[in-house]
Amino acid sequence: MRVAAGAVARKILGAGVVIRGAMVQMGAHAIDRARWDWATIGNNAFFCPDPMAATAWEAELMDVRKQGSSIGAVIEIIAEGVPAGLGAPIYGKLDAELAAALMSINAVKGVEIGDGFAAAALRGEENADEMRIGPNGEIVFLSNHAGGVLGGISSGQPLVARFAVKPTSSILTPRRSVDEAGGETEVSTRGRHDPCVGIRAVPVGEAMTACVLADHLLRHRAQSPAVM
Q1: Does the predicted model carry a pTM greater than 0.90?
Q2: In angstroms, rounded to a whole number, what is the distance separating the alpha carbons of residues 196 and 101?
Q3: Distance (Å, rounded) from C-alpha 127 to C-alpha 118?
Q4: Which of 10, 68, 111, 216 has the most crowded CB, counting CB atoms within 10 A?
């Protein structure tokens, strides 16, 4: 349902806005960003942009499945071509509504925009996205720590968001619990269950991003019809 809505949202946004997602971490193992290749995503089952990581993940996921367990993941969404000016400084912040949309996806337990939690380790001068005038007189940013959103409003830079997906709780390994009668019991889930639901979450994350951007674009058109 979300992906179907995302397909409609992409039509509203137009071909100039390109939204792509990738799984950048499975369990404790992250990709090597130096090997990032968007073309690789369609060649593996993990939506992984690092071909070497994808091969390693396949073996690890097989072990997790055999052990009757599950594993989490981190998904990164990048939206390019987003026009500057979408969002608002207080109510209707673009990053706040994007975070809420991504957080609404099943099994998601954390969301970050741009550098996210890594920004806490930076000094102010390191985190600042400085600007200069480009060769054609246009304003250019020298970095994108903010992930394309400044003060709740899109800056025109690529929008970057990541979200963490927990390991699915539906596993074969018995887990201690309490039943409705108040008695102690153990729960073990049988049947077919994905050992890493983060894989399924990649296109869902793309779709939710598209929905939020389309919503903000339509709001912007209604408020400033002469601008867009």
Answers
A1: yes
A2: 21
A3: 10
A4: 216
